[in-house]
Write a structure and sequence with these properties.
The protein is α/β, with parallel strands linked by helices. It has five helices and ten strands. It has a six-stranded mixed sheet with strand order 2-7-1-8-9-10, covered by helices on one side. A hairpin with a 2-residue loop joins strand 9 and strand 10.
Length: 202
């Protein structure tokens, strides 16, 4: 098991990538453990803000949210201003009250598509959760229960299509694997033309 403090130190040492902010993407398949890992890394970083892309996406725009992210988050942060966005309520199917996101030294962006082509130029680091898609989706289905079964049927198709067109894995700086005791991670310097395999191994 690797010490997350060491990874946090590397993140803090990176050059700012979005104005004064070191924006760190945590990407991977749905159900791969991104949210839990981001929360633990944020805690290790002393309470770094975390933007969940589930709050940016919506039923009508599972992946077509780049323009809103630019306008509501990337633009303000790049100017050193407090960003403001309206988190989406997946049950009520509407956007909620505004939420503030400060231009902290490190801000984590976690969610499927955090390493997409349009976002990568703004990232100081891109972390990829090392878990195969089928295993990730199985975990996600078990977490969400039968009430979300129909949603998951559509989601897996949309996610597969997204990563086929705009893969994040080949551009990841670091691979993260969850283990019983915590996490192991490995710096990676990939080729930009590296395909995403069915299962990524350390």
């Amino acid at each position: 098991m690797n010490d997350l403090a060491a990874l946090a130190h590397e993140v803090r040492a990176a050059a700012p990538s979005c104005g004064p902010v070191r924006l760190v993407g945590v990407d991977g398949h749905a159900g791969s453990g991104k949210s839990t890992f981001a929360a633990r890394l944020a805690e290790t970083l002393g309470g770094a803000p975390v933007l969940h892309l589930d709050d940016i996406a919506c039923h009508e725009e599972l992946f077509a949210w780049t323009a809103r992210l630019r306008a509501e988050v990337l633009g303000p942060l790049s100017r050193g201003e407090v960003a403001g966005y309206r988190p989406y309520d997946w049950t009520a199917r509407r956007f909620g009250p505004p939420r503030r996101l400060p231009p902290a030294p490190v801000v984590l962006v976690e969610g499927v598509g955090a390493g997409r082509r349009a976002l990568r130029p703004h990232l100081a680091r891109l972390l990829w959760m090392e878990r195969a898609p089928e295993d990730s989706w199985r975990r996600g289905r078990n977490r969400d229960g039968v009430a979300q079964a129909a949603f998951w049927e559509g989601w897996t198709v949309a996610e597969t299509r997204h990563f086929a067109r705009d893969p994040s894995f080949p551009h990841a700086d670091t691979l993260i694997r969850e283990c019983h005791e915590g996490y192991v991670w490995l710096p990676r310097r990939p080729s930009a033309v590296d395909p995403e395999p069915d299962h990524h191994s350390l």
